[in-house]
Amino acid sequence: MMEHQLSQKCDLHANPFECPDVLIHYSPQFDEFGLIVHDGGGSSITISFCPWCGRKLPESKREKWFDELEALGFDEPLFDERIPERYKSDAWYRF
8 near 16, Cβ under 8 Å? Predict the structure, then answer.
């Protein structure tokens, strides 16, 4: 069911956060799953377990991402377009 939810595509909404039928968001950058908050924004609530089967999901790598970028001298990496390209995807932890 999780795979089905993650593969949802909507013909009416290009942005999954705008579609009421899309429930789950996956961020490869942080290896993080979340329940979409349908309030007109782009936020989600991070989850640690699959809502359907209860299986443990991977630990979020968000803190490690911030730690690594702060060590490289980036104070606010989410808003800094100068961060290395590999930190904009899952490439930074896949090596």
Answer: yes
pLDDT single digits (tens) 19-73: 999 999 999 999 999 999 999 999 999 999 999 999 999 999 999 999 999 999 9
Instruction: Give the residue from 89, 91, 86, 65 showing the smallest Cα distance to 77.
Output: 65
SS (H, E, C) the chain: CHHHHHCCCCCCCCCHHHCCCCCEEEECCCCEEEEECCCCCCCEEEECECCCCCCECCCCCHHHHHHHHHHCCCCCHHHCCCCCHHHHCCHHHHC
